[in-house]
Fold this protein.
Amino acid sequence: TGVRPPEAVEILNEGFPAYQLQEHQISDALIACVGKAMSALRKDRPQNIDAFLELLGGKDATDKKRIRLHNSIDDILFSFTDSPIPGYRSFIAKFTRASATVQTFIENELITKETIAYSPAQFEALISAINALKLYKVSSNLRRQSMGGETIRLGVENKLDVYHYGTRGNQEGTLIGDVYPLLELIKKEIPGFSDLWVKKQESPHDSEPQPTVNFWQKYKRVIIGGLVGCLIAAGFVMTYNTNNRNSYSTEPSIAVDPSYLFEEENNSDIFSDSIATEEVFMDSVISSTYTPSRQIIGTENGYTKYSDRTIEDGMNSLMWMEQDYIAYTGKSLPNASWHEAVKWASEMNQMKFADYSDWRLPSVKEMVTLVRPQKQRNFCKRFFAPTNAYAFWTNQSVSSNVKSYVTADGFATSGDVEGQREYGDGDLFDFSVRLVRTIQ
């Protein structure tokens, strides 16, 4: 590259600059060798010349077994999940000697489910085609270093269950080798694969031209909602001013900063089915959950903090625990386990934290409202209890063993429900969970 390699302290703090080598068309395999040789910690590097030459030679220190499917098997299960960005796609395909069933999803929403005829001859031809690929099962001690990758899983009855996570150039998991040729092979086995991402019309009339909608018909709900919200806001302000003038009143009042009712920035684009009006904010301030023992500590940016260590998001009708797992317990989730997050939610419900028993793990969309955009992320870091969490588990599943999580800097991805995720020096990532409930 013509650039002096970085010092160990730079790699320790900023990571290995693989992109500089990728810009010069260096192969991913060679980049991996160089990266290991330049590990910040001596124990992570090849310990001698022979070890380095073995690394360059492509010899894998892990157990690696060639995958060969036997002709006696009766079903093959394949799934693919794209990088978990907004609008990401996934599909599940099950092949048997009589049929093939395909389900397609966009952000975990089922789009289509179809079953097509599949003959024994086609099934045996699929087995032969898979066996012709160089696919290997390896031990699961590979450490996940890439973020936001794709997940590809291959299962055969109860005899085989392997997965790949990452990209074409960075393969991690228990399945390596010709993973992407396998993906293309499966796609070709599904007739009209690209058409499966279009949701089927519910009736023949759905395909007929729709009548032209005038401006009033299209926007009357928003206009009426805005007018009603303004009237309610004006009534509240008048009532508030009247209460201030009547010093003899014995009714308790709630101090509200009217400027926050008209906050310009919000996250309503993340929840497309919510209508952000002043009425929603009013309901969040004067809510039925307010009791004398549940005092308001502060309101800001559409959020209300209470004395029972809860925070209400009036925009999205959500109530969050002010503390995540790390802030509440003083430690990270054991082994970064998703199951431990679910267990903690159950414990909070049993003890009826803040007098509620319906705490749960948030969805990806709900969790993202706390970390995107950066202005919102900075606000929540200040408004919620401090935490050093690296990522937060969600309730969304890619498969039975792979769940979605959101990093503290706003990146949504997925990972194994069990297994330690480590930095290069062997320290564990600080995984956590922030519990939420829906405000009825």
